[in-house]
Design brief:
Largest sheet: 7 strands, mixed
Number of strands: 12
Bound molecules: ribulose-1,5-diphosphate
Number of helices: 12
CATH architecture of the largest domain: 3-Layer(aba) Sandwich
Strand content: 15-25%
Shape: globular
Number of domains: 2
CATH class of the largest domain: Alpha Beta
Order of helices and strands: EEHHHHHEHEHEHEEEHEHEEEHH
Oligomer: single chain
Amino acid sequence: MGYSLYQTMNKTGAAHNTFVFIQHQYSIRMSLFETADQIRTMQIRGAGTIARAAAAALSEYAQSLSASDITDWKKEMQHAADTLVETRPTAVSLPNAVNIVMQSMQDTTTISEAKSAIMAAASSFITSSENAITRIGSLGSHYIRDGDVVLTHCNSQAALACLLTAKNEGRDFKVIATEVRPWWQGHKTIQTLNDAGIRTDFIVDSAVRYCMKEVNLVIVGADAIAVNGAVANKIGTSQIALAAHEARVRFLVAAECYKFAPKTILGDETEIEERNPDEVLAPQIRASLPFVKVRNPVFDITPPGYIDLILTEIGAISPQMAYIIMRDYLGWNKNIR
Ligand code: RUB
């Protein structure tokens, strides 16, 4: 019986090593609304982890939900699904996971049938999403050679899988990991890399261009990939891509197929989350600076021209092939709400 790893951070932004294990069979009870709150407050974070937590929460909720008829039951489920989707706007993995799970009950006519469909779909999503990371790790490790210096940003399970697999396969390389203001996700990354015995240099975010001359390869994760191949990921990613482009360093994105955003086919833009300025500067300091507006955008968009390859579980693709993933793999017409 497998366990999913949900990495958590505390509300002050200091990284710590608390892990919440959620069993696939959902024996650990956490209400859907608690999960939604934990996603909103960054205790559950990272696009893939958020998606798996949402699927698990829907399954749990379906099991405990009772209603007088199937129509009311489905309405309650939809309300729960909307609550999850509204927690954070940028990672498309969240609505994609929720849609995949919710679509499973579409043709069901009894509550018990709908419950089983939701539980099966959630379990299958969680398993396939974990398998996807393993496959991306195997694929990504091929791009890492002995002696390489690989730069990564934020805390991406997909990007880390590439590094960890390369290490397991005996490759000798060094990583440069960024700090990642204001939530310090880099602290989690260096903990994982250190645990795996991977030599790592830890730098402040603004040291990227200075260090790029030592780097052979950049690997980052993704929160959303648009139909033109543009990638939304942690703020600072696009600056790293720019520095990599300038230094002619290969820039790879490790992303499961459910990070592709079908709605962008119809012209929707990826919404960039702007979080509370208190995460950047303490309220008492802000209060003393009436002419200063502190802003906290937490994602940015890297244009496709700065991306060499996107590593997915079905293979490495050029960003220009994003539409194919949406059409042939995600079944975009079914996923657009
Ligand atoms: C996390 C982040 C990660 C992607 C990919 O941002 O930007 O790079 O989500 O991660 P936040 P993964 O901490 O604000 O959620 O590969 O684990 O899905």
